[in-house]
Specification:
Blueprint lengths: L4 H6 L4 H4 L15 H5 L5 E5 L5 H11 L3 E6 L12 E4 L14 E6 L5 H11 L3 E7 L39 H15 L4 E6 L1 E3 L10 H8 L1 E6 L5 E2 L1 E3 H14 L3 E5 L6 E2 H12 L5 E6 L1 H6 L27 H5 L7 H12 L4 H4 L8 H19 L1
C-alpha cells in the first residue's frame, strides 16, 4: 500500500550548477531602489521565538541590515545572537507582560502552532505593530494530489478539540490544520496587514531535525549509498538563510499576502539532490549511489521522509508534494543559493557538533539497516539475472 504524506508526518556535470537550489542570483529585492537595497530604512522588529532554527538566521541578517531587533521567548535556549539584540522573556502560554506598552514596526511570529498563541499575543500587539508576519507551512493544504498547487489551494480543516483551549494534544497529524487556523486568526486581528509565509522543508546549518543533513553526511562517509525510488522523483527544499533573507526583505517592503516559500526556482529531482551533494562534499571518497524502487523499500520497512529524508514516492496522494508553485514568492524577490553551498555548509556545521550528538542522528537510515536492505536488493537482482 502506498505511503501517504499524512501517514509519514504522523510518525515523525553541470551537477553543481544545474542542481543548485537555484542560480546564485544576487542578493537583491525586486521593487526597491539601489539605495534601499544597500541601506534599507531601519525598522523595529519583534521576533517571537528567535532562538530556534530560523530565528537566529533572521536576527543576524536583520541586524546586518541595520534593523533594531527584540526577541521574545522563554530564555531557555542559549543562542549566539548579536549583542545589540534585546531579549524579552516570557511564555506564549499566559506570560506576555514583556510585550505590553511597546510598539514595533513588524512582528515576526516564528514558532506558533496553536491559534490560541496568536490570539493572546495579538490582543496585546494589536495597534502596536504595523505588519504581522506569520511563518506557516506548506503542510496547511487539504491534499497533495495535484502538481502545481498554489497558495489558493484548499486548506486542511481542523477537526480536533477546541483549538483555543489548553492543554491541547500534541500537533502530530493536526500540525497542518492548526497552522491553517493560526493563519486565519492572524488575519482576524490584523486585517490586511498579515504576511503569511509557507515554507517547505527548511534545510541548512543549524537544522536539528537532521533531515537534509543526512544526505551530505552519509555521502561524505563514502561507500555504497542507498538512493530511494526513481531518480526523477521531485524534491523541494529551501536553505534557511534564503528563507530568512526573504522574510526580512518582506518586512522592509511591507509586503502582505500569502506565499509558498520553498525551492528551488527550477525543478529539482532526488537524483539532482544526491548527485549534487556527492559532487560538493565527497572529495576523493568512493561514493556509489544504488537506486532502489519505492515498492521494495516499503517491503523492507524503509520509511520515506524519515529514513529516506527529503523524499516521498511521487504517486497517488503524494503526486503534488514537492511540486508546489512558488511564482508569487519569486515575483517578490525570493532567491536561492546553490545546492553545493547548502550541502558543504551543512556538513561543516554538522562536524562542529559534539560526538555524542553526531552518534545519534534524528533522521536517515541506520548504517546496519542500509547494509541489510542493500544486501537483499542485490541478492534479488542477481537472482533475476540468472
Amino acid at each position: 500500500m502506498a505511503t501517504s504524506r499524512r501517514d509519514v508526518l504522523k510518525t515523525a556535470a553541470g551537477v553543481l550548477g544545474a542542481v543548485g537550489l537555484g542560480s546564485p542570483a544576487p542578493r537583491m529585492v525586486l521593487g526597491m531602489t539601489e539605495a534601499e537595497r544597500a541601506s534599507p530604512r531601519p525598522l523595529r522588529l519583534l521576533i517571537l521565538g528567535g532562538t530556534g532554527f530560523i530565528g537566529p538566521h533572521e536576527v543576524r541578517y536583520a541586524v546586518s541590515r541595520g534593523h533594531k531587533v527584540a526577541v521574545f521567548n522563554r530564555g531557555r535556549r542559549q543562542t549566539n545572537l548579536p549583542t545589540e539584540v534585546e531579549h524579552l522573556q516570557g511564555d506564549r502560554n499566559g506570560q506576555l507582560d514583556a510585550l505590553k506598552g511597546r510598539a514595533w514596526d513588524v512582528c515576526i511570529d516564528n514558532p506558533t502552532t496553536m491559534p490560541k498563541w496568536v490570539r493572546d499575543s495579538a490582543a496585546i500587539l494589536k495597534g502596536n505593530v504595523r505588519q504581522y508576519i506569520f511563518i506557516s507551512t506548506i503542510s496547511v493544504y487539504a491534499d497533495y494530489k495535484q502538481p502545481g498547487m498554489d497558495e489558493d489551494w484548499e486548506l486542511a480543516r481542523y477537526n480536533g478539540r477546541d483549538a483555543f483551549v489548553e492543554p491541547l494534544e500534541s500537533a502530530g497529524k493536526l500540525y497542518g490544520p492548526l497552522k491553517a487556523l493560526s493563519e486565519k486568526e492572524a488575519e482576524k486581528w490584523f486585517p490586511g496587514r498579515v504576511t503569511v509565509i509557507r515554507p517547505g522543508l527548511i534545510v541548512g546549518p543549524g537544522d536539528e531535525s537532521d533531515r537534509f543533513t543526512y544526505w551530505p553526511v552519509r555521502i561524505d562517509r563514502g561507500g555504497e549509498v542507498l538512493a530511494p525510488g526513481s531518480p526523477r522523483d521531485p524534491v523541494q527544499i529551501i536553505d534557511v538563510r534564503d528563507l530568512s533573507e526573504f522574510i526580512i526583505h518582506m518586512c522592509e517592503r511591507g509586503e502582505v499576502g500569502t506565499y509558498n516559500a520553498t525551492g528551488p526556482k527550477a525543478p529539482l529531482s532526488i537524483a539532482d539532490e544526491l548527485y549534487g551533494c556527492r559532487a560538493a562534499v565527497s572529495g576523493s571518497a568512493d561514493v556509489r549511489l544504488t537506486w532502489v524502487p519505492a515498492d521494495f523499500l516499503t517491503e523492507q520497512g524503509v520509511r520515506p521522509w524519515i529514513e529516506m529524508p527529503t523524499w516521498l514516492p511521487s504517486r497517488g496522494d503524494n503526486d503534488g508534494w514537492s511540486r508546489l508553485r512558488i511564482a508569487r514568492a519569486l515575483a517578490k524577490g525570493l532567491t536561492f543559493r546553490p545546492l553545493a553551498t547548502t550541502a558543504r555548509d551543512t556538513l561543516e556545521w554538522w562536524k562542529t557538533l559534539p560526538e555524542d550528538r553526531r552518534a545519534k542522528p534524528k533522521a536517515g537510515l541506520a548504517p546496519e539497516k542500509e547494509r541489510a536492505v542493500l544486501a537483499v536488493w542485490h541478492a534479488r537482482e542477481n537472482k533475476a539475472q540468472q
